[in-house]
Design a protein that fits this description.
Elements (H helix, E strand, L loop, with lengths): L3 E14 L2 E14 L3 E5 L6 H9 L6 E6 L2 E2 L5 H11 E4 L11 H10 L9 H7 L15 H12 L6 E5 L7 H16 L3 E5 L3 H6 L2 E6 L2 E2 L1
Parallel strand pairs: 3-8, 3-9, 6-7, 7-8
Antiparallel strand pairs: 1-2, 1-4, 4-5, 9-10
The structure holds adenosine-5'-triphosphate.
The site of adenosine-5'-triphosphate (ATP) has 12 residues, from strand 1, strand 2 and helix 1.
């Protein structure tokens, strides 16, 4: 592997709810190089989403560090983490990454306002490449599951990220949409993006360069 674009060292994350403690991550490490696609699988509750949240800087690990494109992401104030995220990371999350009161086109435009002009892919091209240009003026709630998945990917790619993090991006889509989304992920990887995708789909795992499996917060 070339120098990793995304690197996680010995991540720990605990949750406490009353008397109950959950050890969601117990010393997880990961290095992903430019152009590499890593699929993360594992049973429900094994820590996949927690890992992705830590890699995105949406959550702070209790131990360990995350580095993205040479910048330390963990153990910083949220304001700094969101700046690093805007510069280097694209995210496709199950909860959706679309703002409800903006059209698909304006969701893309909003992300692009936060990044340097030189990294901007023309919005129309982005919408066409993700197969959602015909619904550019729709609001998120007017989209089907498959359309929302494609719009989510357009938004995730709007800052031309070096790292793309996706949580079950093909979870609710039909076979044809899954194939299109996979082709896009492959295209991004071919362009040098490091991709980490949490998935239960065999089709997604089959196109990954590496498939890693979590169990009880550790790699198996
Ligand atoms: N905010 C939280 N507070 C308390 N416990 C949490 C919290 N977030 C996650 N957990 C617990 O941490 C463990 C790992 O959860 P996580 O969501 O990362 O698993 P997952 O592998 O993504 O599961 P799934 O496939 O069901 O989405 C689970 O036991 C979960 O209940």
């Amino acid at each position: 592997m070339t120098v990793p674009v995304l690197s996680a060292r010995s991540l720990y994350r605990f949750f406490r709810a009353g008397e109950e403690e959950t050890f969601a991550l117990q010393g997880v490490g990961l290095e992903v190089g430019s152009g590499e696609t890593v699929a993360v699988t594992g049973p429900s509750g094994s820590g996949k989403t927690t890992l992705l949240n830590c890699l995105a800087g949406l959550d702070e690990p209790d131990g360990g560090t995350v580095t993205v494109a040479g910048e330390r992401l963990s153990h910083r104030p949220e304001r700094e983490r969101s700046g690093i995220r805007a510069r280097h990371i694209g995210m496709v999350f199950q909860s959706g990454n679309l703002l409800e009161h903006l059209t698909v086109r304006d969701n893309v435009a909003l992300v692009q306002r936060l990044v340097a002009a030189r990294t901007r892919v023309p919005p129309q091209e982005l919408l066409e490449r993700t197969g959602i240009a015909h619904r550019a003026d729709a609001l998120p709630r007017q989209l089907s599951g498959g359309e929302a998945a494609r719009a989510g990917l357009a938004v995730a790619l709007a800052n031309a990220p070096e790292v793309l993090l996706a949580d079950e991006p093909t979870g609710e889509v039909d076979g044809e949409t899954e194939r299109r989304l996979l082709a896009l992920l492959r295209e991004r990887a071919a362009d040098g993006t490091a991709v980490v995708v949490v998935t239960h789909s065999r089709a997604v795992a089959a196109v990954a360069d590496r498939v890693l499996r979590l169990r009880d917060g550790r790699w198996t």
